[in-house]
Write a structure and sequence with these properties.
six-stranded antiparallel sheet, five-stranded antiparallel sheet, 22% helix, globular
Length: 231
């Protein structure tokens, strides 16, 4: 289904649903990926230029630019986005499915894609966001946002399904999903990682990749609620 934009006022008041996986860019030039919007996600327009529309994803407030050529892959949403709430006990029951999502994703041919949030190619926080979204639990988009949103725990308290964060003393720049027994799964890049999804260990005794990330370990967090996003 396609639609016609009748006015700028209509653009900024309607909510739209993605009919396909869409790329969102970090500028109206649409040359560098910022994030992706999976089929079925909702977004709103905030402004427009000749070649691109500035949008904001409803589920996580994330901004980006959509190429005008992709407008035919949107339709007005029949119902507005409504965040789903979860009791913590319900989230705990869903964690095995979150872990299974990441393990299945690792089995597919993949590579690290900056801004990637849809299969088969993810960045680190994109894999976390997609894994939890698969059970309708929403997380913020970027690693530092996920760290701030989660309930902080000590690394010694880690349980399967918790998130581990890496980076500098000032900011989290990388995230992985804890699997248990000192192992975590993550999507990491070419220069420092595996150029895709792999499993590493939280120890100085691992290989070069594990050691490199272990030196950057910042802390850990537990998902106890779903992000409400833009409503």
């Amino acid at each position: 289904m396609v639609f016609n934009i009748e006015s700028k006022t209509q653009m900024c008041t309607l909510e739209y649903e993605c009919l396909a996986n869409l790329n969102l860019y970090d500028s109206p030039e649409c040359s560098r990926l910022a994030t992706q919007a999976a089929t079925g996600r909702h977004l709103k327009f905030t402004s427009n230029q000749d070649t691109a529309i500035e949008v904001r994803l409803c589920e996580d407030d994330y901004p980006g630019w959509l190429a005008v050529s992709d407008l035919n892959l949107l339709q007005p949403a029949s119902l507005p986005y409504q965040p789903k709430t979860f009791a913590y006990e319900d989230i705990k029951k869903l964690l095995p499915r979150v872990i299974d999502f990441t393990l299945h994703a690792m089995q597919q041919p993949n590579y690290y894609l900056w801004g990637g949030t849809v299969a088969p190619n993810y960045d680190c926080s994109g894999l976390m966001q997609a894994a939890f979204a698969s059970v309708l639990i929403r997380l913020p988009r970027d690693a530092y946002q996920q760290e701030a949103f989660l309930h902080k725990i000590e690394v010694s308290q880690l349980e399967p399904g918790d998130l581990v964060f890496f980076g500098t003393p000032q900011k989290a720049t990388h995230v992985g999903l804890y699997l248990g027994n000192g192992r975590y799964i993550h999507s990491s890049g070419k220069e420092q990682g595996r150029n895709g999804i792999g499993i590493d260990i939280l120890s100085e005794q691992g290989d070069a990749v594990s050691q490199s990330y272990y030196k950057q370990l910042r802390g850990a967090g537990r998902v106890i609620k779903s992000y409400e996003g833009m409503v």
